[in-house]
Design brief:
- It is built from 1 helix and 3 strands.
- The protein has 63 residues and is of the alpha+beta class.
- It has a domain of 41 residues.
- A 3-stranded antiparallel β-sheet has the order 1-2-3, with helices on one face.
């Protein structure tokens, strides 16, 4: 099973979050479960290759 990290927080009655490698693409849900479902949908769309010019975060190792 593949995994990916996400960042999330609660703001009033909504849960907000984004995928760690795709910080420009936020989503929300009324519950944490709904937020996770929406994050999964975003992941599928962003990795499908159908959306042009997807911005992605990465790590650069400096020696």
């Amino acid at each position: 099973m593949n995994t990916t990290k996400y960042i999330y927080w609660q703001d009033d009655n909504m849960w907000l979050g984004y995928l760690e490698y795709y910080p420009d693409y936020w989503t929300q849900g009324e519950t944490l479960k709904e937020l996770k479902e929406n994050l999964f949908d975003i992941y599928k769309e962003l990795t499908s290759g159908k959306i042009p010019a997807v911005r992605r975060a990465a790590e650069l190792h400096i020696s």
